[in-house]
Amino acid sequence: MSPYWMQVIPSQVFAQGFDLSAFVRAFAVVSVAELFDKTWFMALILTLKYDPRVVFVGCYAGLVVHTILAAAFGMAAAQYFSPLALDLMSVAVFGSFALLYAKDFYYAEEDSDVISAGKEEAQEDTGLDQEDTLADQESGTVNKGYGLASPVKIHRSGLLKCFMGTFIAEWGDRTQIAMVGQHAALPLMPVFFGSLLAFALLTLSAVAAAKMLQSTKVSERHVHAVSSVFFALFTVISLADALEHR
Fold first, then answer.
1. Residue 130 and residue 152: Cα distance in Å, rounded?
2. Are 189 and 34 in contact (CB under 8 A)?
């Protein structure tokens, strides 16, 4: 007899095989939605203040919790809605995102820099100022994991701040909404692991980019345009799925 926890979880979670297309789609959706997003910049800013390893673990842990919640919400939704309804919901969500990014593209200034804008937004949420964090590093008052005073206490404080900051910032974000829809409409485990891989690589890229992007400019209009095109493509794919389930 199967354990109780396996009986209450839908059988699709333990289905044999691995849907690679669902894995790739989830990876692509999360990557497009999260790159240059507020939580990405939050990891970048926090890296200027804390040990990069602490920032990666703390921020990624917050995103892992959100992925688990998205999987739970998506799994619950799948029990109450038909595959056709879930596909149409995905069409509505992705279509809305495509329009929102198109709107952001239209209203963005010609010379606007997504790096500077993202840093400012992340600094407001974290309460950290970039100039102060750089000054702290130069003066040695920031622990970077190289034997300074009270490393355990500083690491613990940084870990908690990274986790809580990322968890709160991601709540209700476009990425979270997209993940819930993906977990509901597609095979759960491939979507779950595709989302986790995307978050891991994105968090790692934000930590690694903390130094490299100091003097780099990226057009905000271009980023919004590319995101709008990708979400329009995701809309078309979801619409094709809906037609198959009609």
1. 24
2. no
Structure tokens at 106: 């239209």
Residues 44, 117: Cα–Cα separation, whole Å: 13
pTM of the model as a whole: 0.69
Question: What sign for the dihedral angle of Cα 195, 201, 204, 206?
Answer: negative
What angle, rounded to 10 degrees, do the helices at 20-34 and 188-212 form?
40
pLDDT tens digits, one per residue of 9-63 = 444 444 546 788 889 999 999 998 888 777 887 888 788 778 888 889 999 999 9
Please count the other Cβ atoms lying within 10 Å of the Cβ belonging to residue 142. 19
- Per-residue pLDDT for 116 more than 90? no
> What is 112-162 written as a DSSP string?
-BHHHHHHHHHHHHHT--HHHHHHHHHHT-S--SSS-SSHHHHHHHHHHHH
